Write the structure tokens for this entry.
Amino acid sequence: MALTYSAGSLVTARGREWVVLPESEPDLLVLRPLGGSDDDIAAVFPAFETVKGAEFAPPEPDDLGDQRAAGLLRTALRVGFRSGAGPFRSLAGIAVEPRAYQLVPLLMALRQKTVRMLISDDVGIGKTVEAGLIASEFLSQGEATGLAVLCSPALAEQWQQELRTKFGIDAELVLSSTVSRLERGLGLGQSLFDKYPHVIVSTDFIKSPRHHEDFIKYCPDLVIVDEAHTCVTDDDTKTGTQNQLRYKLLRRVAEDTERHLLLVTATPHSGKESAFRNLLGLVKPELAHVDLDSQSGRKLLSQHFVARKRADVRQYLTKEDGLADDSLAERTAFPSDRYFKDETYKLSPEYRALLDDAIAYASERVEEADGQGRREARIAWWSAIALLRSMVSSPRAAAQTLRTRSAAAVAASAEEADRLGAPLTSDSADSDALEGMDVAPGAETEENAGSRLADLAERAQALEGPAQDLKLKALIKHLKALLADGYNPIVFCRYIPTAEYLAEQLSNDPETKKRGPLGAKTVVKAVTGTLSPQQRIERIEELAAEAGEDAAARRVLIATDCLSEGVNLQHHFDAVLHYDLAWNPTRHDQREGRVDRYGQKRDEVRVITLYGDDNGIDGKVLEVLIKKHRQIKKDLGISVSVPDEMSTGVTDAIVEWLLLRGRQGEQEALFESDSFQQSFADLEQDWNSAADREKASRSRFAQRSIHPEEVAREVAAVREALGGAGEVDTFVRESLNALGAVLRDSDDSGASVTGFTAQVGGTPVGLRDALAPVVGAETVERDRPIPFRSTPAVARGEAALVRTDPVVGALASHVLNAALDTQADGVRPARRCGVVTTDAVTTRTTLLLVRYRFHLTLPSRNGEKQVVAEDARLLAFEGAPRNAVWLPQDRAVELLEAHATENTAAASGERTMKRILGELGDATAHLESYGAELAAELDASHRRVRTASGEIVRGLSVTAQKPADILGTYVYLPAASSTVSASAGVSD
């Protein structure tokens, strides 16, 4: 009869030791290698293979390490943990080290039986990480079995990469471009959403009625909605069809009260209170109508809503947050501010004449169409705006617009003309409106205008180049200044032809040996809507790779607004130049937010806005919209969206004035005109109201449901179990040094993050083989420096000094395996025992590194889940094990810093270690008692975190598996000087 092994016990099979997992049955054991990962789990049939109970082998007394041995082994062990025993099951296994403030939404979620949350932290704080933490934790705990992320198609690949690389969640892309391939692999009657448990779904794709119904039927039990403000309608104004379809879908998703729903947006208001209420209604229906000015209303909202500015989290867990001290303080390196500079240019005489003629043509067409009917008037209006916007963009965009028929020309009605013409000429704040909207619009609306427009197009084409295009000349001047100061800028344009034109004018061409104006070491590339979202990311990576690691190399990215929302560019770029003014200032903020966010190494992000002094449009847009937006953001600390219809009203008034009075019309007269005064008054009133609401909501709805003390308590527990960044930094440096790597400190000029580089060509072959898949075989083979950064937000090819980084993990695994294998070849930095003579102790002191295994029963709404988790602890005692005086935990940790002050003879050290190891059996009772204490603390921690969900913690239990494993034993002997000092103290 086969023996029954309990979960967490050790067995020997297939020539190695394993931990028995809870999924095991008497006739089938599910095993994980001791010290291994979930990727190495195996199933063993005891009836066919030899399985024996095992105990962890004690250290060998003759395998002594130096003073670093204990600390290196401890960190190597803890880095290897992939499932924590504490209430945050997933933190040990994810490849990102969350900031303490990012744990707040997770704590809020764990207090709800069914999670319904609106996460509205400011741009760049890390909402994706916060949502990912909740998803990872709930999937790990079994509280959710599937995940769907609803987002715009442009962000789908980025979501997929974030979930896979940071949280280990493999999600299938369900897009218009992938659905045919996915459906070919379905069984009869099978749904996409039934086959794939984790999906990232394009909001464009899901609006189809057929897929809409299919998604609702098989919708996973956890849904994340990105840019959620675009998925609700506003009761007061006409809302786009896309918003209506998305809102209808989300209402049906939210109808299932058992489904977890996370809404993510940095702009929950979008300028309209009713839209905000509808958004809250998706979270919890009563929030759509509750009095948010009342204490009860605010209390209800606080359980489901988190919205913080950078200033709220830049310094967190400090005494200012109500904590006793700053021992857990966390300072997040956001850029301190954006440096704004508005730079002007004037048109060349030839360009000025062309623009005057274009304005005259547009004015004639609008005046003529006014007498032909409303449809003709609207077509002419959109044609005029298209012509003016492309004219002030670039000669290339102007020429293409003049040669292209207006999209509105085919309209059968005025309403259809507005629907066709507006998207290509306006700048909606809706991120879903970005795709396909960077093409140059057409201006041709009638057959007999062909020759006149063709002549204008030829004149525009002849103006290409810095000699006649003084806007381009000004751009080159300002880019040179940015590059000279060490910046890598992004130049944002409105239209594809403009971006392609700038890339041609600025880049070097190796084939023709043409040298661009920005220098031989400056790499320039363009990213526009002609590329798919995945191709855009690849183009940016190509740009970074081509520039390389040369400190003198610079990167310039020319982009349209296809990159202005969602894509993270802070690792490669640190400045923004607005080549074309957006007619909605929210778009400027979106552009700047691509680089001004967490992970940006520059303390100051530079923003240059280029505007025409004499083109009749730019100066007015800058004065009325852009500067007003900046001032509100400066006053509130956050961006407040200007409603699209209000922004459009002002720009329409500017265009109307330009068509009536020409480019030379006095700006002061425009500002005094009735139509402009009315449009501006409406904008001012609406925008100020939105700002006041936002300011009031940030105060009224400040996150108070989770107190910083609660976060501090959990952060302390996590760091106690898994270690902190300082420990990892020391471990990586000391291990690599010991293994023969070449380390050099680095300090990026102007950067707020420092670190070092390591060349690993001289390290043992086992470590090189482990690092090659992580950093690239070429990097290892050619002995290129691997940059290690002090921030968890790193670029590709860099390593973060955090325990979850793959490079750190590979190093830790090598160090641990070498310590456990006394026959391993090469240098072994960590050892399982050591004897150190030091003045840090006055009597013989023994430090034990103990691994505890816990068997957890975790109840959830989907049933109980059995889990085995590990923890590593340091315990220290003075004297012999039989009469041990056990020291406090902080004293045990301090011993890791003890340095040898005298040499210890090898023979004496072996004798001492052999004697101590032989007596350790007398410490078993204390080790088991301490394990029981840890189990009780873990039980209390699980219950504390889930305090508001009492029904979920019924049946929860945590049991320490016996015996505990003694991984390391280290004896500290008092130096002669410290013994004398102690004796002198006693005699006194």
About this structure: The two ends are 69 Å apart (CA to CA).
